[in-house]
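Students often ask why we bother encoding 3D structure as a string. The short answer is that it lets us treat folding as translation between two languages. Here is a chain of 389 residues written in the first language.
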Amino acid sequence: MKHLILLLLIVTYSQVQAQNRLYEPWIGRSTGKLPALAYGLGEDRLGGAKMGYIDSNVALRIMDTVKGMYLVQLSKFHQAYIEQSYVRTDSLNKLKPWYVTGSISAKGDSAYDYINVIMEEKLPYKTWMEINPSKIVVDIFGVQSNTNWITQLTSLKEVKNVYYHQTEDDVFRVTIELQHKQHWGYSVGYSGRALVVKIKRQPAILDLRKLKIAIDAGHGGTNTGASGIKAKASEKVYTLRFAKALQKYLKAKGVKQIIMTRTEDTTFDNKDRILWLQEQNPDVLISLHLNSSANTNVSGTSTYYKHIGFRPLTTSILKRMLELKLNEFGNVGSFNFALNSPTDFPNALVEIAFLSNEADEKKIINTKFHSDVATKIYSGLSDWLKTLK
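And here it is in the second language, the structure alphabet:
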């Protein structure tokens, strides 16, 4: 009996040890197209709530695996999740308990302002916009300050001021105050040993004819989108018709720089759209979609944004869209749609009307309504620019 109890104890101990080894923390690196940190494991049709995209090759302390996600220890009191397919193994055995920052520099070139934070390692971060006054805030995790100066050059045009706080023992926060109330976009990534915030400036001339406008016709190809209730109108077909009507109207109004994510019924993955748009560097993005609901009585138009700095654009467009005698479905913020996620340029998702509502669908398939929507979006863009002058 004693031998049996001893054997059971040995087996149990071995199982515990094996389990501990299974979840022993290890170091990975972010990889793939637009790796993103998520706040938790919650899901909806757009995916879980995202903390934000991070650069590739960022060192991540992996603590556990849950439902196809890795649990990442960002700092002592902060965790996040990342899809397993966006992490590769690394030869680094472990990270230091904390790293230190170096100097910070702020300078501009002919087109952008840049904030450079010298780092010992490529560590995870999150960023967000603030308004009234307009700011960009960057939290870097696993870092303690060894920054003894911030050099700010007169070549800066959009950046008003830069400062930092050690908000926690291992969280370093950089705050960037902007000159203008409107956020025009920024990107964050590593260049060598520096974390770089690249900030777009407000265009010198706030005239729609001088801006580069991107138009995204939602869905396409194998991604058909929603379907109408009576005429069975296809979302992918009609978003393209609305996009072409908007393109035509903008051209007629003298807008010379217009880019389209698609001009035919082609499949274009949303992440690939984002990467392509980042290369094209538009001043504004308008993404066109058609809504749907299980409740056929729900109808109306709506606009969406993720980042608070881009809300003014969406409210101006919604106000004009309501002149089409559509019901109001609202202005929706912190929206987790892929093309609302980039911080690189002001963007607005316009859900023109509901395919699942018979009255709305009747409007959607009307060619004149396509032109009317184009007119209202143009007016919304123009209104938005007027508030910035």
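Translate back mentally: Confidence is low (pLDDT under 50) at residues 4-21. Keep this in mind for the problem set.
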